[in-house]
Amino acid sequence: MEFKVSLGPQHPALHEPISLRMTLDGEIIRDADLKLGYNHRGIEKLAESRTFIQNLYLTERICGICSFSHQTCFTQGVEKLMELVPAKRGLYIRTLVCELERVHSHLLWLGVAGQEAGFESFFMYTWRDREVVMDILDTISGNRVHYSMNTFGGVRRDIDEIQRKHILDSLDLLRTRTEYYLNLAATEPTFVGRLSGVGKLSKEQAIALCAVGPTLRASGVPMDVRKDDPYAVYDEIPFEVCTADSCDVLGRAVVRVKELMQSYNIIEFLLKNLPAGPIKVKAPRKVKENEVFSRYEAPRGENVHYIKSNGSDKPERLKVRAPTLANYPATIAMLKDGFIADIPLIFAAIDPCICCAERLVQLDHPRSGESKVLTFSQLRQMANQRYKNKQFKKKETLWPF
Amino acid sequence: MAILKPILYILVYPGLLFLLLYSTFCEWFDRKLYARMQNRIGPLHTGRSGILQPIADIVKLCAKEDIVPEKADKRMFSALPVFALAIVCTAALYLPVWHYGSASSFNSFPGDLIVVAYLLTLPTLIFFLAGWHSTNFFSTIGGVRVLTMLFGYEIPLLLALLSPAVLAGSWRILEIATFFQKQPLLLLVNLIGFFVALVALQAKLERVPFDIPHAETEIVGGQFTEYSGKKLAFFRLLGDIEMVVGSGLIAAVFLGGFPGGLLPGLAWFIVKTLFVIFLLAAMRAATSRIRIDQMINFSWRWLAPLAVLQLFIVIIIKGMVS
Amino acid sequence: MNAEAIVQKISSDIKDKIQEVSLAAPLRINVKVDREKLLAVLQYLKEQFGFTHLATISGVDLGESFEVIYHLASHLATVNVRILTPRSAPTIPSTVSIIPGAILYERELQDMFGLVVQNIPNPRPLLLADDWPAGEYPLRKDWHFNRPAEKIPGGK
Amino acid sequence: MIERLVHWSRVKSPWVLHLNTGACNACDIEILAALMPRFDLERFGILLKGTPRHADVIICTGPITRQNRDRVVRIYEQVPDPKFVVAVGACAMSGCVYRGAYNSMGGIDQVLPVNAYIPGCPIRPDALIDGVVKLLNSLK
Prior knowledge:
The structure holds 4 protein chains of 4 kinds. By secondary structure, chain A is mostly helical. Helix content of chain A is 46%, strand content 11%. Chain A has 14 helices and 8 strands. Chain C has helices at 3-13, 38-49, 103-113; strands spanning 18-25, 28-33, 53-61, 65-73, 78-86, 91-93, 116-118. In chain C, strands 1-2-5-4-3 form a 5-stranded mixed sheet, covered by helices on one side. Chain C has a two-stranded parallel sheet with strand order 6-7. The chains are: A mainly alpha, B mainly alpha, C alpha/beta, D alpha/beta. Chains in contact: A-B, A-C, A-D, B-D, C-D.
């Protein structure tokens, strides 16, 4: 029996308009195709009619979760076009906000993953602790989500001694909480059992389909822009690229939790070694004719901006590639010939940020068959059904920590 | 005079008026407790500490537009909420709320325990029908889940109610209450049964962890997805009244009933039902939703055997006592 | 192997296939090729240096022609392979056979610039709305959006 | 008398449907944050409902995208009367930075009648609470 599955687009479990439509052969997904566009706003065209300073705030609003990633990526590119060397202290503060954003995004993801696996209390807990990071960001930048910290040549706000101490104190709290979640997850065999072996993406596939971020690193490829192509002050910071070899959703969770721990270390390092001096240097208004290809490691993966300038104060072309878009082909590969029961977890595992990719996902099948409409959470529930018969033995599914 | 008493019974106490007011109060009490247990405050600005919140909800729903989906079976769709509400209100009439001893009450007869249990089962079937007749996919799924759950909790609930009845040697709620009033120590025998009945009641009321049929993040509104306006208000009211009747039944059977005349009986009724509701709210706050298969597993692996065990204990003790 | 060495090796190995190779900035290598030889160059880069990760494909409207830039990245450096395609016949070859992950970027190019990607496995529109008029490509420089007059609710 | 009662009930018990019409996600996350223990919208009787049939207030975030327009109108029609629309965030009010972009229609008010606007980019959870309470007070 072939039937159509449609997810969303308005659904209490999802806070973004996403509609996933595909035709299935029984329980197995035969073919899937992407049609994006419900969240497409036309930012690239818009950017051509705005000045660089205006674009600073436009790129920030590409995404509400990883807003700083896009802004920093753009800022770095324009700084290279301007041949500007940013102030050292400014770069440190910029990197600090980058890492804080990574922490808040990964905590958010942990909660969502818990929810998809039917672990609701986990969701509430991580979101409560996420407020700690939000408070830090609030004290630094004055806003909870769009920080607007960047400017060409540095950052706009300085950190004083009281804020520094506040962040360091909060960091201890976050560390203990993250360890607590690790323990919580480790003692919950069903949770680990639900994640392991789901959404396999082999190393070769991941490379061929140009996956990025934790999705790629969980397939054992140590690609991290922070190491490969260091920006800001990452070449001065000791940190490790976290990978996992299990190639499944559990691996992606492991990579993210490890990265949380790395981020805490990086934040501590940055705050302890914060250099004195100005936070920004003066930037020119116009930009010489040139082009730049700027890369940035966002919480979801490699973020890419291609900026071409034409000598005026407006860019000739701004091309944005958000990490979620890069991960879609890999997601389809994970879904293909898989069970529909696994869709929610697989989708959550790439940490989809639909507005980031400016689009909506619609997977559908050309042939018409008996059609049946399911939502995302029904799928989740079907997943629960499918896994109910599996006996999880504690020893077999050890949390890898 | 003889005709006045039944009318009073049906319309004022413990009939419609009292039930309506008291069930909304119970909903507020439950919501407030739930919120406090989650570190929240809960309804606050409607009446004194939000006490009128459920009433506001229901009045608002009644004043809203009433949409019947085009594809739905219109007559069934509209009739079901009314039926369900009538059924639970009828069940409430059999609760011995203000007196006992005088067996001449018109609404108490040998075997009314079975009737109340039966009447409390009917709303479940109506939920299923409501979901089915909405012809919405979520509603259908919700309806099917309702029926699946029914198989889980209904038998343990009946078995649990059976044990005090066996101990008291009567199928009449009033006589059971009177029996335990005379020998309050025997109430302790029924502790396991009390626990089983409490969990089964939670499942019957479809509250966390058993809110599987209308799990919001899973199937939107479950069997109520297509209901709006007055009909939704009826269903909400139904849930509240079912909670009151269910907790009243448990209080009458397991907690020794409500002795005294009009006022002391009322006081006892309120205290004991609120106690049961408190336990229900605590259960709701401390757990997260389980899956439907886990629920069935749990009720057959734990609840039903526990209820049977309780029955054995009761039979042995009855042999010793008599 | 550093970026300079890669530039050296490219210019000596496949001199006949490329028009120009240079090191534009640290870790940024520019390679200019004919569009007919694009696939051969990508294949060479993939096999010789392991440039398997296609970060994205950027299209730029230069007026007379379109420039299409393939941003390849690895831990060694980033290579921008650029081709030109005339506005009158805007066709480019599909790279999906070499880099399967390129599919979405190529479909995006089709939507936004009206480029015709030859041999693309799935040519359906990707981004624009269902009711988008055919033959309009928003990122072309000569396409302008005329904003419809806004209603001001309850206002003057 | 009955009218006053109905009016009072409407003010005291707004049930909310959350609709993303092409926002950048920031407002949506903040709305979720408003339901968490820290802000607790339930104090005002506000409940987040999943189905349009149960809702009174539609909270829209984001500039309406071309693709989303028809769907938003359809959902609006599914909500039983009386219904209110709240435009949350700068995008939903006027289009914010996306004003003039070819795929966004401007504010929510270009498509739906809007009853209240809550400014902010993104809104803070406290602003959301303030806005909804103000909307309710304006009904008095």
